[in-house]
Amino acid sequence: MIPPIASRFVAAETATESLDHVAKLNRDGIGGILNLLGEHYETQAAAEEDVSAYLDLITQIGTTELKACISVKPSQIGLDAGDDVFTANLGRIIDHADEHDVFVWVDMEDRTTTDVTLDAYTKFATQYDGDVGLCIQANLKRTAEDLPRLADVPGKVRLVKGAYDEPSAVAYKQKAHVNQAYKQYLEYMFEHFDGGIAVGSHDPEMIEYAKDLHEVHGTDFEIQMLMGVREDAQRELAQAGYEVNQYIPYGDKWMSYFYRRIRERKENLVFAARAVLTA
Ligand code: FAD
């Protein structure tokens, strides 16, 4: 069981209980993006455990009417064991998801993984006619050059600010610069993308900016936020008619994810402590 202190940010240890969380979200008009917690498996065997857990999850989602999809991390499905292992495993997951009509997002990890992740996404989004999504990071300077290439691929793209501490040679380091890049990349996406845009941010300024761009260009977009972060805003946006999807981590490796949320924002500790007191 996930202890009360972490349960704001992690749905459950099992897929079945996490789907109960999705069902509640769906009642508020919010979709679920399920992510099994785990990363950096060095062996093919370790990666295989999570690949097969995702295959089972897809089958399970396929038997429901839930608005749910999945998001996978490259290093969780074999990237550290080899580029070919990752690509083959991603292909298996997407193929199975295609059979069950489940959408697959690919998370983006640090800068050393960008090329192989973009290549795998391009290959499968083309092969499966857009039923795949990719996360890209506004803090990376290269994103300016990656965007035109992605505009020609028939999939969805989630823009986030970027969670990895990258060197200044390749990344914007100051918040203001990352925000400026985020807006500039969003502008490009609303002008040139027609496959689907996801605004992966809790930042009210970025969300307002996306709404304004939608008014100007008419391009469809969705808003994605993490479980446990600005959930009132998630509900309000859904009620106002925007497409909102919540990224939902689950699984027994919740500890390091929970500490990341706390390190990122001290107020999260207050929320977590409150959850313990009211449990
Ligand atoms: P921040 O700059 O952290 O915050 C801006 C403003 O948002 C704050 O000033 C505040 O007004 C509001 N805000 C933020 N957090 C809170 C809070 N807890 N409570 C209240 N208000 C808050 N990163 C990757 O590198 N790769 C990925 O694949 C990836 N996938 C992601 C998927 C989703 C759905 C989301 C939401 C994020 C993902 N990230 C990923 C993380 C992302 O890169 C950022 O690290 C993270 O979202 C924090 O940036 P932010 O845009 O929310 O804004």
Automatic annotation (TrEMBL):
InterPro entries in UniProt: FAD-linked_oxidoreductase-like, PRODH_bac_arc, Proline_DH_dom, Proline_oxidase
GO terms in the biological process aspect are: L-proline catabolic process to L-glutamate
Pathway involvement of the protein, from the record? Amino-acid degradation; L-proline degradation into L-glutamate; L-glutamate from L-proline: step 1/2
- The source organism is Halogranum rubrum
Catalytic activity of the protein: L-proline + a quinone = (S)-1-pyrroline-5-carboxylate + a quinol + H(+)
* Catalytic activity, EC: 1.5.5.2
What name does the UniProt record give this protein? Answer: proline dehydrogenase
Task: Please list the cofactors this protein needs.
Answer: FAD
- For whether the record's keyword set contains Oxidoreductase, the answer is yes
Q: Does the keyword Flavoprotein apply?
A: yes
Domain Proline dehydrogenase: residue ranges: 20-272
